[in-house]
Amino acid sequence: MDMINQTQIVLAWELYEQGVPQLHIAQQLGKHRETIHLWIVGIQQQGLLPFLESYEKAKKGPRVKRQTDGLIKWWIWDIRKREYDCCGEKIQYFLKKEKGITLAVSHIYDILHEKYILRSKWQKNRKRGAVPHASHPREVIQMDSIDLGGLFAFTGIDIFTKEADILIAPTLTSLFGKQFLHRSMKRRFNNHVELLQTDGGSEFKLEFRRSVFQFCDRFRIARPYKKNEQSYIESFNRTVRKECVGWNTYQQSDLTECQTMVKSFLQRYHYHRPHMGLNMKPPLSIFQS
Predict the structure, then answer these.
(1) Alpha-carbon torsion 188, 93, 125, 235, what sign?
(2) Do 177 and 43 fall into the same domain?
(3) What confidence score (pLDDT) does residue 289 get?
(4) Please, which residues have CB within 8 angstroms of residue 255's CB and are 6 or more apart in sequence?
(5) Do 191 and 278 reside in the same domain of the chain?
(6) Domain assignment present for 261
(7) Dihedral angle sign, alpha carbons of residues 80, 84, 87, 93
(8) Grouped pLDDT means (10 residues each) for the chain, 289 residues
(9) From residue 120, how far is each of 60, 109, 189, 279 by CA, in Å?
(10) What pLDDT is stored for residue 180 in this prediction?
(11) What is the C-alpha to C-alpha distance for residues 128 and 226, in angstroms, rounded to an integer?
């Protein structure tokens, strides 16, 4: 292959000396015109024989792959494990914050692929239902619940600031839904929002609905089987499962333990855990009440 290229280089130079345009030379030799231009410039600077000699030397030997220090790889793997299988962007954040090292996210994923089997969370060309949008804090709050077996977690999130709250309850009733509404609105969401959205579950009926307009201007129920309308709270619920309570089944005797885990998780979530939607900042590092 090198001999063929060297022959083409000589022929390209001869055609160029005869006044043939570089574009026509590229078409005749089946090369990109930028390649022909580089050959001609190199010959003009070095001469034909020196250029051929340097071209042959450049082609010898295998290319050395990009190497990464083994300690940096270990740090990346350790951060992923420590931060509950977090994404490359968050690993990049912690790597820069803790070690002062900046790596491209693509390079981080290359390193993760050496140890883990990764798959994309996103599905292309997937139709997504309408979701509420927010341009300022306390504009839209989404609420939902998580079935933990013998216990239930009521969850809520401000879709703009990503501030969140959780209540662990022994039963899934509208009384506990009301209790969560009052507690979360008073301690987390400043007593008032423009729009509060839930699904159509029984925990958000009766007593809950009797109180809901004390804290919001509008109350909206997401359409059945349209999970994307509750995308922010569904994402938060997955985070709660993944980084807090896990996928275990809890009994009512575990109530105190779950409450302790939730308290620790919310502290970490608001002040330590970076959020991609907030430019890799923890929620309460930006939005302080």
Answers:
(1) negative
(2) no
(3) 46
(4) 151, 168, 170
(5) yes
(6) yes
(7) negative
(8) 75 91 89 90 91 79 69 93 90 94 92 82 53 89 96 96 96 96 95 94 94 94 85 95 94 95 96 90 74
(9) 38, 12, 33, 21
(10) 97
(11) 8
Q: Which domain holds residue 93?
A: 70-113
Q: Are residues 171 and 261 in the same domain?
A: yes
Q: What is the CATH number of the domain that holds 231?
A: 3.30.420.10
Q: Pick from 72, 68, 69, 70: which is nearest to 99 by CA?
A: 72
Start-to-end CA span in the chain (Å): 68
pLDDT of residue 59: 63
**Residue 283 to residue 63: CA distance in whole angstroms:** 45
Would 171 be classed as within a structural domain?
Answer: yes
Query: 271 phi and psi, to 5 degrees?
Result: -115, -15
Residues 148 and 104 in one domain: no
Instruction: Say if residue 164 is in the same domain as residue 271.
Output: yes
